[in-house]
Design goal:
alpha+beta; two-stranded antiparallel ribbon; 4 strands
């Protein structure tokens, strides 16, 4: 979309990771993965975001949870959400610069408007917590 007046879009970057399945040493078994992230450290409090969230649990709370599960013959399940942060709907307008390698030459001044949270944003953890 065209960049709104007075908006300073957040810069982005690509984060690359090499995945080697089965700990193979062969070059042809290497898998390349890329993640598109926002440079959230550029966000200004009160202007780009209001609240953040860090889910922190004391070690004693975990011990109590495990003890209660054992006493009541309960089960504790663990899940790993691979793309957790990108599932939450954002509650504000966030604009990003066009990513490197995907700039539109016909409209270089256009920006991306986010509909969902993105890795790197200050409020991504809070949005995921509210979604969960």
């Amino acid at each position: 979309m065209p960049k709104p007046k007075g908006v300073r879009p957040i810069k982005t970057r690509w984060v690359y990771k090499l995945k080697n399945p089965n700990n193979s040493t062969q070059i042809n078994n290497v898998i390349f993965k890329a993640r598109f992230v926002a440079k959230g450290f550029e966000q200004l409090y009160g202007l780009k975001y209001i609240e953040t969230f860090a889910n922190v649990v004391n070690q004693i709370a975990w011990k109590i949870l495990f003890a209660l599960a054992i006493l009541n013959s309960g089960f504790i399940y663990k899940i790993d959400m691979v793309s957790a942060f990108v599932q939450g709907e954002i509650d504000s307008y966030i604009y990003l610069e066009q990513p490197e390698g995907f700039q539109n030459p016909e409209s270089p001044d256009h920006v991306l408007k986010l509909n969902k949270a993105l890795y790197g944003l200050k409020q991504s953890a809070r949005i995921w917590y509210l979604t969960l």
